[in-house]
Design a protein that fits this description.
heterodimer; A: 431 residues; alpha/beta; abc type-2 transporter like fold; 3 domains; six-stranded mixed sheet; B: 238 residues; Rossmann fold; 27% strand; globular
Chain lengths: 431, 238
C-alpha cells in the first residue's frame, strides 16, 4: 500500500463515520418523503382543471367558448346564475374558480372589441402549490381564447387584427379569507405572501442553527477544558447551570434575531412600497400585536432548539464531536423552512401537517402567513405546543445534568446487581 | 471525625468495573495520596468523592455527610481540581477567580476569597492577562489558587503536577503543603511516586480498581524493605 493510499484510507475511515452518514441518510429520506408529498401537484398539472362556468351570452362565440372549456377542463358547475355560482364557489363545492362569460361577450368581439371574461377565484392557500392550481384555470381560458381566434379566422370574420389575435380579456376577482379582492389575481397575492413569508423561515433557521451550535460547542468546549467538572463541584444547583446556559444562549439568539429583524423591517417597507396590490387595505397585514406574537413564537422555538442542543451537548465529548452534533438540529430547522417555501400550513397533506406541527421550529416560520390570514388559533396552538415542548426538553436536560452521562457521554450504566440500566429510563422512573 | 470515610465503594461503566470495592479513611488535616498507574481507578474515585459521578455501590461520608444524599452540602466544603483542567480562556486570571468566588456569596466573603487566591497564584501583573495567554505552569497555578482560595475542608486534587516542569511542580507542591498547615485536608492522586512520597502523610496503592496497600510511606517502605514507594508499588502489584 502506497503512502498516498494509506493517507486516503485513514482519512475516509476518520470522516466516514455513522455520525456523518446517518444525518445524510435521514436527510435523503426526508427529501424523498417531501417529493412524494408534493407529487400530487405534478399530477394536478397533468389533470384538467376543475371550475364552475356561468354563461350569460347567447351568441355563437360563447358556444365556441363553452366547447373549448368543456374540452380542456372539468366543469363542476354549469349554470346561468352568477349569484348561485359565486355562492357555491365560496362554499368550496365547485373547485377553486368560477368562469363567467357576460351577456355582451359575442357582440363585443363582433364589434371589434375584446370580449370580457370574469374569473372568480376562491383562494384557500398561499403557497406555490395553490399558485399552480389557479394558473391552470387561466390556461384553460387562454386555450378558449385561441379557439375563438381560430373560429374567427376560419369563418373569415372581419375584425380588428388585435382582437383576432387576442379576442378575450380577463378580469380577475379573488376571494381570500372573506375579502373580495377585485382586479387581483391569486398570483399577485402569492407573490406578496411569498416575498414576506420566506424571510422569517430563513431567519428562524439561521438563528436556531447558530444559537444551537453555540450551546453544543460550549458544552463540548467545557468538557474538553474540564471547566464543566469544576462548575459541577461548586455550590450551585445543576438546574441553575442548565437554565443559566440556556438563558445566556437565548439572549444571544434573540439579539441575533433582532439584528435580522431590523433588516427584515427595511425589507418589508421596501417590499410593500413596490407591491402591486395593497394587502393592508384588505386587512391582510401585520399589526404590532402580530409582531409581538411572532416574537413570542420565535422565542419559544429558540428555547426548544437550545434545550435540544443542550441535551445533544450532554452527549458530546469534546469540541470536535460537538460540530457533528449540530446536524440533527440543522435538519429539523431545514425541513419546515423548505416546506414553507412551497406551501402554507393549511395546504399541506394531513400527515405532513402533523410532522410540521411536531417540529417546534415550524411555528414561527408559518406564523407570518397565518397571522396575515387571521388564523390566530393555529399560531396560539403552536406557541402552546412549543412552550410544552421546551419545558419537557429542559426537564430532560436538567435530569441528564445530574447523571454520569454528562461526563462520560455513555448511554448505559450498571446498577448494584450488575444489570444494565438506561439512565434516561431510570431517571424517568424516579420522577 | 474522619474527613473522608469510604466503605466498599464500587463504580461500573457498562460492563467495565472501574472501582471494585475500595475502603479507606482520610484523617482530618492530613494529605492522603491515591497512587497507581494510569487506568487504576484513581480519577474515578476522586470524581465519585467530588460528587461528579454516581456511586454504583458502597458508602462514602465526607465530614459526616453522606455522598449519596447530601451532595449539595458536600459541594460547599470541598474543592476539586481535575487533571489537565483549564479555565475560561476569554477571562483574565483575576476575572476567573472573581467568577468562581461569586458562587460562594452568602457562604463566604468573595472579596477575601479572591485576595487569598491572588496570593496563592502569585502571578503579579499577568493575573490581568487573558487565561489563553498563560503557560501551562501559570494556568495550573491559577487553578490551584482557585481550588484553595475558598479554604475548603477537603481539597481533592487529581494529578496535581501532571505535565509540569520540575520548577513549576515544586512550586505547586509547596503551595498545597502550606495550605494544609492552615487546616485543609487534601486527597490527591498521582502516578508520580516521588511526589506522593514528598507530600503525603499516608498513601493507598491502587491497582485495577482495588486498594492493594495502605499506610505511611515510611511504614510501607519498611514492610517491603524498599528504598522508595516506586519499589513498594512494584512489589505490591507483582
Amino acid at each position: 500500500m502506497s503512502g498516498l493510499s494509506r493517507i486516503i484510507g485513514k482519512e475516509i475511515k476518520e470522516l466516514l463515520t455513522p455520525a456523518t452518514l446517518i444525518p445524510i441518510i435521514i436527510m435523503a429520506v426526508i427529501f424523498g418523503s417531501l417529493g412524494s408529498a408534493f407529487s400530487g401537484v405534478t399530477e394536478d398539472i397533468d389533470e384538467k382543471p376543475e371550475f364552475g362556468l356561468v354563461i350569460d351570452d347567447t351568441g355563437n362565440l360563447s358556444s365556441v367558448a363553452r366547447l373549448s372549456l368543456v374540452t380542456n377542463s372539468v366543469i363542476t358547475f354549469d349554470g346561468s346564475s352568477l349569484e348561485e355560482g359565486l355562492s357555491r364557489l365560496k362554499e368550496g363545492s365547485i373547485g377553486n374558480a368560477l368562469v363567467h362569460i357576460p351577456g355582451n361577450f359575442t357582440s363585443n368581439i363582433e364589434s371589434g372589441s375584446q370580449g370580457w371574461v370574469e374569473i372568480f377565484y376562491h383562494k384557500t392557500g398561499t403557497g406555490l402549490i395553490d399558485l399552480v392550481q389557479s394558473s391552470l384555470v387561466l390556461s384553460s381560458v387562454t386555450a378558449m381564447s385561441q379557439d375563438i381566434s381560430l373560429r374567427m379566422i376560419s369563418n373569415d370574420m372581419t375584425a380588428v387584427p388585435e382582437v383576432v389575435i387576442s379576442p378575450v380579456a380577463v378580469y380577475s376577482t379573488t376571494f381570500l379569507n372573506g375579502n373580495e379582492m377585485s382586479g387581483v389575481t391569486p398570483d399577485q397575492i402569492d407573490t406578496v405572501f411569498q416575498s414576506s413569508g420566506f424571510v422569517v423561515p430563513i431567519i428562524v433557521m439561521l438563528v436556531i442553527i447558530m444559537a444551537g451550535g453555540m450551546v453544543i460547542t460550549s458544552m463540548g468546549s467545557e468538557k474538553e477544558n474540564k471547566t464543566l467538572e469544576t462548575l459541577l463541584t461548586l455550590p450551585v444547583k445543576r438546574t441553575w447551570i442548565v437554565f443559566g446556559k440556556l438563558a445566556g444562549a437565548t439572549i444571544v439568539g434573540l439579539i441575533m434575531s433582532m439584528i435580522y429583524m431590523v433588516g427584515l423591517g427595511y425589507y418589508y417597507s421596501s417590499l410593500l412600497s413596490s407591491a402591486t396590490i395593497d394587502l393592508d387595505s384588505y386587512g391582510l397585514s401585520l399589526g404590532i400585536l402580530d409582531y409581538v406574537i411572532i416574537g413570542v413564537s420565535l422565542f419559544m422555538a429558540l428555547l426548544c432548539g437550545l434545550a435540544i442542543c443542550m441535551i445533544l451537548g450532554i452527549f458530546t465529548k469534546n469540541f470536535k464531536a460537538a460540530q457533528t452534533m449540530t446536524l440533527p438540529v440543522t435538519m429539523l430547522a431545514m425541513i419546515p423552512m423548505l416546506i414553507s417555501l412551497f406551501s402554507d400550513f393549511g395546504s399541506l397533506p394531513s400527515w405532513l401537517q402533523v410532522v410540521v406541527f411536531a417540529i417546534p421550529f415550524s411555528h414561527p416560520m408559518f406564523a407570518v402567513n397565518n397571522l396575515m390570514l387571521g388564523d390566530y388559533a393555529i399560531v396560539f396552538a403552536g406557541i402552546a405546543y412549543t412552550a410544552g415542548f421546551a419545558i419537557v426538553m429542559m426537564a430532560i436536560a436538567v435530569a441528564l445534568f445530574k447523571k454520569d452521562i454528562l461526563l462520560t457521554g455513555r448511554i448505559r450504566n450498571v446498577n448494584e446487581k450488575g444489570k444494565f440500566r438506561n439512565p434516561l429510563r431510570s431517571m424517568l422512573r424516579k420522577r | 471525625m474522619e474527613a473522608v470515610k469510604v466503605t466498599d465503594l464500587h463504580k461500573s461503566y457498562g460492563d467495565f468495573q472501574a472501582v471494585k470495592g475500595i475502603t479507606f479513611d482520610v484523617h482530618e488535616g492530613e494529605v492522603f495520596g491515591l497512587i497507581g498507574p494510569n487506568g487504576a481507578g484513581k480519577t474515578t474515585t476522586l470524581r465519585l468523592l467530588a460528587t461528579l459521578l454516581e456511586i454504583t455501590g458502597g458508602k462514602v461520608e465526607i465530614f459526616g455527610k453522606d455522598l449519596k444524599n447530601e451532595a449539595p452540602e458536600i459541594r460547599k466544603i470541598i474543592s476539586y481540581l481535575p487533571e489537565d483542567a483549564g479555565a475560561y480562556k476569554n477571562m483574565t486570571g483575576r476575572q476567573y477567580l472573581e467568577f468562581i468566588a461569586g458562587f460562594f456569596i452568602g457562604e463566604k466573603d468573595p472579596v477575601e476569597m479572591v485576595k487569598r487566591g491572588l496570593e496563592i497564584v502569585n502571578l503579579d501583573d499577568r493575573i490581568d492577562d487573558k487565561v489563553e495567554t498563560y503557560s501551562k505552569g501559570m494556568a495550573r497555578k491559577l487553578l490551584v489558587g482557585r481550588a484553595l482560595m475558598m479554604e475548603p475542608k477537603l481539597a481533592i486534587l487529581d494529578e496535581l503536577t501532571s505535565g509540569l516542569d520540575v520548577v513549576n511542580a515544586q512550586g505547586i507542591r509547596r503551595i498545597v503543603r502550606n495550605k494544609t498547615r492552615e487546616g485543609t485536608t487534601v486527597l490527591l492522586s498521582s502516578h508520580n511516586m516521588l511526589e506522593v512520597e514528598l507530600m503525603c502523610d499516608r498513601i493507598a496503592l491502587i491497582n485495577d480498581g482495588r486498594i492493594m496497600e495502605m499506610g505511611t510511606p515510611k511504614e510501607l517502605k519498611e514492610k517491603y524493605s524498599a528504598n522508595n514507594i516506586e519499589d513498594v508499588f512494584v512489589e505490591v502489584v507483582r
